[in-house]
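Pair request: fold both.
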Amino acid sequence: MNSNAMYFLVGLMLAGLIGAGVWVYQDSHRDGVEISVGRGGVSIERH
């Protein structure tokens, strides 16, 4: 494997890791309303 391919793979892995980190951060800080319907009725929670 030449060095260009190695750099490409390392860069691809880093980009994937950064993208996953951003997705997890945004998912944990998402504001909104959650509506659930169950046996106990309708539940509305604000985040």
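--- second member of the pair ---
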Amino acid sequence: MALCAAAASTATAFASSRLSASTARPRGPSSTSLPSFVGAFPRAVATRRSRRAAAPAAARRAGVTVRAEAKKKSVLIVNTNSGGHAVIGFYFAKELLAAGHAVTVLTVGDEGSDKMKKPPFSRFSELTSAGGKTVWGDPADVGAAMGGASFDVVLDNNGKDLDAVKPVADWAKSAGVGQFLFISSAGIYKPTEEPPHVEGDAVKESAGHVGVEKYIAEQFGSWASFRPQYMIGSGNNKDCEEWFFDRIVRNRPVPIPGNGMQLTNIAHVRDLSRMLSLAVEKPGAAAGKIFNCVSDRAVTLSGMAKLCAAAAGVAAVEVVLYDPAAAGVDAKKAFPFRNMHFYSEPRAAKEALGWRSSTNLPEDLKERYAEYAASGRGEKTMTFDLDDKILAAVGKAPASVAV
């Protein structure tokens, strides 16, 4: 408990009588409440500076753990070079840098690769101009890549199984890293008859992320795992909303597998990075917890088509519902989302971290459409072979509906 004012001459017995009550309170680093006996201290203190200097020493003598509330930390982000998760590390780094923390981003692979020409990697100058460091290398040899640098916190935003994460976790433990965070996936939950998924629901034991969560729980006292779903935000390079825009701007029907009422979750990446930042700010509150790294609203698949059309300034969109088996297509290749309810809620983050969602999907889609339009993608020649196969199979009726 950080003590803002104390006197070196405080009676040990008096402090001890209050110790059990004060240490029973939440121990996250955001806590700023003072012990009740502070107001009873004598006013005979020379200066405010001397009071601040005396506080840690007095607290140590009383056996109270002193935590610096405003301590700036050194954070290493091991960032993937592919998929939709790379943007999480980018936003997390920006938020930490804005708060005054020291940040190093270790990206998998080679700085000169074609992947680095795409966002968010093409925007890494935003990190370096804010004081961050960017490094490229192999997470399996993270120690060599870091050259002996020390860190308070490590986030693995790369590995999907223990083979990939274990070298990073083992190095972090041997290097004395105090907090280990891991980007897992909400995809590890078993299907449920009672959506949404909440923390503690059954998971697929065979999933690689599950093995990682178990391992870091064994190795670290201060650890947390975050399970994202789909995300939206500037700098994301995975096609999700763009898939809808591609069809909408060309006045094509949008084929959706199933009945279109399946629920999913799309969160703005700023919400995800804020959740991670709160875990860094409140390590005690986050320790040993699983967090669904998602927004607190769901959207239907047909609703997503409608919202994308609205973002593009289109009054209506034609949705074609189809049965993948009857159409002879693999829905995983024909559609960017899961063909089922895939919906989680962020209950643990709200309760433990005081996190709140700021995702506003209709407005966030406008941001993404503006970037889509500016990129010129809407004017490029595209083929829609799978779409055409689906449309031919269903004849666009009676499964065709206007949303």
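Observation on the second member. The first strand starts at residue 74 and ends at 79.
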